[in-house]
Amino acid sequence: MFLADKASDDGSGIWCSKGTIQRHTELGETTVKRTIRDFLKEGILVETGARGCKNGFTVVYRIDLARIEALELTAEPDIETGATVDPVQTGPGSGATVAGVPGPPRPPNHPKTIHKPLTRERVAAEDEEAEKVLACYQAHLRQL
Questions:
Q1: Contact, 3 vs 63, CB < 8 A?
Q2: Residue, of 45 and 68, whose pLDDT is higher
Q3: Model's pTM, two decimal places?
Q4: Cα–Cα dist 132/3, whole Å
Q5: Which of 27, 62, 67, 121 gives 31 a disulfide partner, CB atoms 3.0 to 4.6 angstroms apart?
Q6: Of the candidates 68, 55, 51, the residue with the CA atom closest to the CA atom of residue 11
Q7: Full 3-state SS string of 17-81
Q8: Long-range CB contacts (< 8 A, 24+ apart) of 43-46?
Q9: Residue 21 and residue 5 in contact, taking contact as beta carbons nearer than 8 Å
């Protein structure tokens, strides 16, 4: 999924290093190398060149979209267990109910929250607060 996210719409232009893949996917170095090697062997990934970087070069890959479409689906819903195709609710939900009282419809840190830009008054107040903290810290260091 990470490689697909880095690719263009046609599957080309993937040039992130294996170290970058490791950091973003939280996988080990051996796992990343083995997975890329397996994708290359299966024809899912194709090497299209190299791109210079500070450590030498990074291989440029392309995802073969025809090979992806030909892959067998792995997440078929099991009719016998009652699994549904779309079990995730599309709406925000109603929150948890505690003692019959429903919670808020969205958590306060919902990603659609719009943060107000700083005003000069807020910047001045934050600067003033930072100066107070710095003064206390310096006074504490002098006592040590």
A1: yes
A2: 45
A3: 0.47
A4: 47
A5: 27
A6: 68
A7: CHHHHHHHHCCCHHHHHHHHHHHHHHCCEEEEEEEEECCEEEEEEEECHHHHHHCCCCCCCCHHH
A8: 43/67, 44/68, 44/71, 45/3, 45/14
A9: no
> What is the greatest pairwise CA distance in the chain?
72
Going 64 to 66 to 68 to 72, the CA torsion angle's sign is negative
Best CA proximity match to 47, nearest among 31, 36, 55? 36
Structural domains of the chain, ranges and CATH numbers in brackets: 2-70 (1.10.10.10)
Q: How many CB atoms lie within 10 A of CB 82?
A: 7
Over residues 51-65, the pLDDT tens digits come to: 887 878 888 888 888
Cα 131 to Cα 144: distance, rounded to the nearest angstrom = 20
Buried b (16+ CB within 10 A) or exposed e, 46-73: beeeeeeeeeeebbbbbbbeeeeeeeee
Beta bridge partners of 56: 53
